[in-house]
Amino acid sequence: MGLTLKIFWARKLAKRTEISVTGCRFEQENLVMGLIRSSFSFLTGTMFGVYVAQSYNVPNIKKLADTGLLIAKHMEQTYRKPKKRDDDE
Fold it and tell me: Tell me, what's a Pfam family for it (predicted)?
């Protein structure tokens, strides 16, 4: 009876190990597929951006932002209310 019980538990443990190994394999496949899927999107976007930048006249955003900031500073200085002076002094 003791030997039969040991064999039963050994089989039970083997099945449990097999299931966990299969589960890990399934999770690993999902991880790899998720990595490939997100990398595919990133690479596709990068290639599209390179194509557009080389084929079309894309404005320089940094230069455009600097120009807008310069115009805003000029407008602020031109139309700013004068500071109030204290008449007590």
Answer: DUF4535
